[in-house]
Amino acid sequence: MDYKERIEELRSELHRHNHNYYVLNAPEISDRDFDMMLKELEALEKEHPELADPNSPTRRVGSDLTQGFEQVKHIYPMLSLANTYSIEDVDAWARRVDQGLSGQKAVFVGELKFDGTGISLIYEHGKLVRAVTRGDGERGDIVTDNVRTIRSIPLQLQGSGWPDFFEIRGEIVLPRAAFDRLNAEREAAGEPLFANPRNAAAGTLKMQNSAEVARRGLDAYLYYLLGENLPYDNHYDNMLAARSWGFKVSDAMTLLHSIEEVDRFINHWDTARRELPVATDGLVFKVNSLLQQRNLGLTAKSPRWAVAYKFAAERAATRLRFVSFDVGRMGIITPVANLEPVLLSGTIVKRASLHNADIMKALDIHEGDMLYVEKGGEIIPKITGVELPDRPAGARPVEFVTHCPACGTPLVRVEGEAAWVCPNKEGCVPQIVGRVEHFVGRKMMNIDGIGEETAAALFANGLVRNVADLYSLTAADLMTIEGFAAKSAARVIDGIAASREVPFERVVFALSIPYVGETTARKIARAAKDIDRLMAMTAPELEAVEDVGPRIAATTVAFFADPENRAMVERLRTAGVKMAVEEAEDAEPLSDSLAGKTIVISGVFTHHSRDEYKQLIERHGGKNSGSISKKTDFVLAGENMGPAKLEKAEKLGVPVIGEDEFLKMIGG
Ligand code: IVH
Hints:
The protein is α+β, with helices and mostly antiparallel strands. The protein has 24 helices and 22 strands. The chain has 5 domains: about 5-60, Helix Hairpins, CATH 1.10.287; about 85-310, DNA ligase/mRNA capping enzyme (D-amino Acid Aminotransferase, Chain A, domain 1, 2-Layer Sandwich), CATH 3.30.470; about 315-425, CATH 2.40.50.140; about 430-575, Orthogonal Bundle (DNA polymerase, domain 1); about 600-665, Rossmann fold.
């Protein structure tokens, strides 16, 4: 089989396995086998750039190139749906439909209303060619590169019967589990949390870095097929056809033959939706027949043939007791409404975030107000409004604090940001305790046995004012704190000792540099290689590191400019904490048998992967090169070496050696 056929074969197999895994939830091969096929394809594509294809399965990982978004006009405007809030309203709509069709009975399709962000996908000859956001309904942003990273969206269709050119619309969502994971990461990094999965999905889709999009785990449900030559004359069958081409079409989609069936569908999903892995904010009912849809037509904003039923927002009214102000590890002040306890979708709510000064001001909260708390797709309950008639006479507006509620320092506000910050980093208890808690976290220094209370007690007893103090703690010190016995104290001391082995990249994460999360910490640690270099890096140097923007660069420079932070770093270094990346074992030199040799790798190998061979060349003193020239000493060739390369090697008289011969050369 020649390489062209092999590339085709790998692409089509990988597309099929992707669909099995991400749409059908029924993988046929192991992750490992999948990765091996993907690696082989990557190698072949690299060698034959002329066969590049933007829809190749290798493009799912995204790219770090930042992208601006070009805008385009939608072929058909993206309308919205009329909303209804009760079964009666939906029934009234269904009766209007029957009337509009002069008494002809309509069949309806009931669907979930996914709470994400709308997307329009254009396919030509079975291939994804463009993905566009809803935008203002007339024009949207082209986000094709980001959408290609969503594994459940087919890049190449399967089966048969699709029109040469069509559009399919759906919703990009961030499943709850991925949303929770993302917010936990952001919390650990001191970054603002996403309020709900919808905002997170919309924000992610518009990110500049498609590799980060790929990492976040978006998903997509499709619910509307548009085009000139659709296979069927009704919506339901068209969606089943789309499912057979590889699209994720929700199993909830149901044909409904009467208003009674519509009502049953509503009653079922009103509660069953809570079990779904993705957020939904209602249901959608559509007239099934496309001919009937055309007869019913559109209003200016929405079609008459479809309607949304919105689930009752899980909302409750309760009295405000007082507003308190939390101080985070980075000094950010968050206003919190403390409420008379109220039951909201199964849990008792006593506190709800007011997010920041701007949001609090917009709500215009007064002392003793009756407030509405909601818990829509949201995880953290939020205050959505005030019941004005219930405002106590003479109540005064609640003011945002001007001084830190913990230490009394006047607050500062960074230009352009919504947050007020307490600048007293070294003397403000919740900030210090928060930084200690972060430092000992599992993904940072992994020191067990120190929670919020212990950190606060260590501070109160004058034992730990900054994370470096942890390394001078003794078991006897710990035993002065309530709740510590010899055994638990020894465990903490052991944990502190073991943390000296934690790799440098996690140490960087543990330092609480504002906005530097786990991934960014790893990247800047690897780029800097050691703490001295990191402390000396300028903002432009930091910005040259992948994933680091101007904001992170600025806060990092400011962090290391602070003499207190530099002193803390020095003390950590003296305590034996790792302050440099260790050259990984698998990068240590093995011999100089290839010293001075320039080698080109080509083809597919059996004993090691291409990357392993590249590493072996370096570890034996040789140099890797991508193209054959007079300077090339030899070509290490596997199977399917590209014919152009072979020809060039022959022309220049460069020896071509096989895998086994190479392994003998390096003595293994
Ligand atoms: S159909 C012309 N079906 O809700 C009708 N929309 O408020 C096109 N949505 O913009 C939309 N789930 O982003 C349809 N099963 C579903 C939906 C759905 C969510 C979104 C969509 C639309 C908005 C309308």
